[in-house]
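Forum > Structural Biology > Help requests

Title: Can anyone predict the 3D structure of Peptidyl-tRNA hydrolase?

Hi all, first post here. I have the sequence for Peptidyl-tRNA hydrolase but no way to get a structure on my laptop. I'd be grateful if someone could post the structure tokens.
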Amino acid sequence: MGLGNPGPGYAGNRHNVGAMVLDVLAERAGIRLSPGKGARSRALAGEGRLAGRRVVLARPLSYMNESGGPVRSLLDYHKLPATDLVVVHDELDIDFAVLRLKRGGGEGGHNGLRSITRSTGTKDYLRVRVGIGRPPGRQDPADYVLKDFSSMERKELDLLLVEAADATELLLARGLEAAQNDVHPRS
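Reply #1:
Sure, ran it for you. Structure tokens for Peptidyl-tRNA hydrolase below:
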């Protein structure tokens, strides 16, 4: 599940980096994302194979803070447990262009994650956290995430999207711990 806000006005926002990564994954796998019918109509979704596994790639058509409903609908439709869910999302508490993988934990003020946790009844889902960094000075974080990437960030954005897609595939292919060993920087 790649998180973001719907519509072209939000397409380049930091908050939409999860949806951007999802587009890279869909292109790699040759999966066409299209609106579903009925309960599935609240997301763009497509099925196929990625990293040797059957996957459903999806992006909610709701606003970020209402992501949980579409996620729950897709899990129910495909009869998948929330523990199989992988959410790709922006992360303020990680420096720009840094990736982190984890299962569970808090939402850190991220309303999309909070909505998913409420709708699934668990925090025990996988996360691909794409660092967007903290806002400069005293800028409100809510304003910061709804701004497009800076010109300096845009120079690195394509590489970041590819690296986040690679990390997602590694997570699917090898599991969390092995993927973390490869993705997380050594200190």
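Residues 8-183 form a domain with the Rossmann fold fold (CATH 3.40.50.1470). The helical segments are 17-29, 68-77, 111-120, 141-145, 151-174, 176-183.
Shout if anything looks off.
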